[in-house]
Design a protein that fits this description.
This protein is an alpha+beta fold and about 160 residues long. The chain is built from 6 helices and 4 strands; from the N terminus they run H-H-H-E-H-E-E-H-E-H. A 4-stranded antiparallel β-sheet has the order 2-3-1-4. Keywords: DNA-binding, Transcription, Transcription regulation.
Length: about 160
């Protein structure tokens, strides 16, 4: 584990629970100086534990009601170039290299099934893409979360 102590983990939990609370509020709740909270947050960013401050969003109210996971097989030695081409598709919101089935696991969104088919065809037609396999999400049951994991790390300390 990175160079973290219980204060770092407690701070992470607060940030995960209420990312908009601000440094002053984190310091107050942890009963530490504001400068301590600021330096600990900077340390967590430097260690790569905190990688961004983006809000978690449901894209359905923006008209993207279909979410899918797409396995993509890439031609040998074409990964980086193909990733560049994939990044130009706005509906592709995440791509991860994976072991197992395919080379990439991508998350795509679309307005409806017809639009999803269009986006999937764009992916299939990209140079470097050999094949794809898709799975449409019917309902998100558990949103991305970290608090249970932070609690586990804290209890293991």
């Amino acid at each position: 584990m990175a160079e973290l102590d219980k204060l770092d983990v407690d701070l992470l939990r607060l940030i995960a629970e209420e990312p908009r609370a601000g440094v002053r509020e984190y310091a107050r709740r942890l009963n530490i100086a504001r400068n301590t909270a600021t330096s600990r947050i900077a340390k967590l960013e430097q260690l790569g534990v905190i990688v961004g401050w983006r809000p978690q969003m449901d894209l359905a109210p923006l008209g993207y009601e279909v979410t899918s996971f797409v396995h993509v097989w890439i031609a040998q030695s074409q990964l980086e170039a193909t990733l560049g081409r994939l990044a130009r598709i706005p509906e592709l919101i995440e791509a991860n290299t994976v072991s197992g089935d395919g080379d990439l696991l991508c998350r795509l969104v679309a307005h409806n099934n017809s639009h999803f088919e269009e986006v999937l065809q764009k992916v299939q037609q990209l140079e470097g893409v050999q094949r794809v396999r898709s799975e449409i999400v019917l309902n998100r049951r558990i949103w991305p979360r970290v608090i249970p994991l932070i609690e586990k790390v804290r209890s293991d300390m």
